[in-house]
Amino acid sequence: MKKIYFVLLLMALPLFSFGQDLVTVNKEPVQELQGFKMYPNPAYGNEVYITTETNGVKDIKIYDVFGEVVLTSRITTNTLDISRLVPGVYVLQVTERKKTMTRKLVVK
Fold this sequence. Notes:
About 15% of the residues lie in helices and about 40% in strands. The protein has 1 helix and 7 strands. Strands 4-3-6-7 form a 4-stranded antiparallel β-sheet, with no helix packed on it. β6 (about 90-95) and β7 (about 100-105) form a beta hairpin. The longest helix is centred in the first third of the chain and has 17 residues, at about 1-20.
């Protein structure tokens, strides 16, 4: 009886060891925007200011809690108009020169 348990354990051992391997999908290093600042957060007015080290043209996407894009914009200054957003929690994604930064935005 002990031999059967031992054989089953030996057969199951590779399953346990191979099941622990890590899988990586994207091996490219993440390039984040240098000097990224977003203020005010929480936002009480109709504008949010976004600055970076280079302050170039920024592509903005704002997602709601369900993952739906609720606002898309391209800004050349540091001012983003958020007057169309209802109060809540959002995810703000800023892309500038093929580098991306993602932050939480609270609108009150």
